[in-house]
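Letters spell out the chain; backbone shape is given numerically. Both lines appear below:
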Amino acid sequence: MAGVPEITKPFNHPSMDEEEEDLFNRQSTTSDRSSSTPLSPECSPYNMSPWHQMPNSFPDDNEVYAGGGELLPRGTSLLGSLVREEGHIYSLAAISGLLYTGSDSKNIRVWKNQKEFSGFKSSSGLVKAIVISSDRIFTGHQDGKIRVWKMSPKNPSVHKRAGSLPKLWDYLKGSIKPSNYVEVRRRRTVLWLKHYDAVSCLSLNEDQGLLYSGSWDKTFKVWRIADSRCLESIIAHDDAINSVVSGFAGLVFTGSADGTVKAWRRELQGKGTKHNHAQTLLKHDCAVTALAVSPTAPVVYCGSSDGVVNFWEWERQLSHGGALRGHNQAVLCLAALGSLMLSGSADKTICVWRRDGGNHTCLSVLTGHTGPVKCLAFEEEDAAAGRWTVYSGSLDKSVKIWRVLEQSPEALLRGPTSGGGGGLIDST
């Protein structure tokens, strides 16, 4: 595919200490490309923003460059900050006015109206991922465990441990059969239905009642939410999996420290599932650190350690749509909401991108964190106005709360228009 670097030589993961792994997920290499190529002020998202002026033309129609900006456009605002000096923020989830935060203190805090509302604590393993399905909260941990929590129907401030994945009975029953063991290292075998390294990511497909978990053990597993059964385990990559997301057209996407993004096609077989490799979207020498799927269009985004966000569009098959360049350090997290896509980075900023068909405009850069932005979550405030509440968690131990608009206030007053704003990607 045009515009996508192809490197066929496998890349091995070098040794790194735990602090480096936690900062950049698990990555096979770091790239000096972003640090060696300064971004010009003329290409900053603020200057490219429709709230400022039309930008200069770009040298490559397939790429958009964006740099640092200090001012927020009208309609975008910082609503507040949540700080609790107990650890770096690694994971977020938001639902019905409640915000769940996970940190390396092993605590899951619950916030309401910018105040601490409740909390619960795991016995071990920093909290790397949180997803919520109805009254159940699933948390992925550094110790390789997926824990399940339930909210009290009578008192939403009370959360109780409901078990873990796999269930103890399934684990004990599976351990009896030698055929259930797989070799993971020389002279070491483990049960196929249990992760043996950090659970780095979780994704829900509530329509199918499935939970996906990705791990540094190079596998992703498929769980049936109704009975907590592990249906399938797929050895998907040559290195750690940093992101998994359930997408459109029966596809599941995985991104890895081996520098690849893969698409897997889901087939339902009786009460089980079968996932087959459908396509490798990206193969390069920079670790893939984050994935996101647009909720309003068949588009998948990929962030990597070189600071670039690539995206692919679906029309019978996935094709590369372009690259968004808004950061000078690794992209650590992505979130897709409405027509917007947000990218958080080790450079301590968040870029807000708006998609219009196959084009993307960088609306603004959100600044204020003093550490890398590790995770993002969001809730819809007003669908008609395209207004969202966005939460950003950082290794500076804080969560910042933002109000973000899909359009400028002036555009909302004018109504819908044809044509694009500044700083667009032309995918044709």
User: Anything to note?
Assistant: The domain at 23-414 is CATH 2.130.10.10 (Methylamine Dehydrogenase; Chain H).
